[in-house]
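Usage

Read records sequentially. Each one opens with the input sequence:
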Amino acid sequence: MAKKVVRVHFIDKSCKAVAIDSNTTAADLREMVIEKIGLKEDACFSLFEKKDEWERCLEPDEKPVDVMASWDKEKDKKKSTEEYMFMFKKKIFLKDDDREMEDPAAKDLIYKQAQHSVISSEYPCTVDDAIRLAGLQFQIVYGDHNPQFHVPKFLLPSLKDFVPKTLFSLKKPNEWEALILAKHETLVGKDPEDAKSEYLNIVKQWAYYGTTFYPPCKSVGNKLPSKYVIIGINYEGIRLLKKNKVRHCIFTFCHARPTLIVGEVLWPGGVGYSI
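and closes with the structure output:
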């Protein structure tokens, strides 16, 4: 049976090439990726279909070859320039993830996913935390401070990869760089793996860590238009948030109150939003 090479992407824009055929399922492809990257604690990781900003988790029995064929049809029909890909990443975030932290491959994937969520401002962040995290990221990427190389303008070309996008305009680029370099200089001797642990320990304290964000599908008794809100779900419950540059929580469901009604989040005052 003819084989086809597909690329499975990761959140840091790297990828792995895998040979599949028409009988290969998403579950098979997931196992191939897990073996290639040496991932041991894999229970909470999944394979996703991604089109630009839209994504969904593949069902285990789906055929990647069929999914790719649907991409080609959609491109031809819509004359689309959308980027289609398979992505492997963490799907389920549990409060107790000690075993994942002991698996270097899992820890690296989780760190990179958290870093992406920070830099894209998916997770709201203060300036102080942004500087701390950027210093740790610098240590992970470049190692110990070297006064010969880590000088003004060293970081400027890649500065946007270190600073959350909604905070970037709050300071001049050279100011951000100076603050990050100063923080990095205090981390001499810190092992990159320890820096990843510290980075994750900071991010895990945030209310939005591990949250998946969804737009509401429809609203009932529409006093707050659905285009202005977004639904966030993580292991602590469900949050209804204002959809703007900074995500402000306006309602939280945390297991106690009967606010879930047949797949809907009920906004106080009678407004319901479908998840």
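Summary fields computed downstream for this record:
- Residues 135 and 184 are 4 Å apart (CA to CA).
- The longest helix spans residues 104-119.
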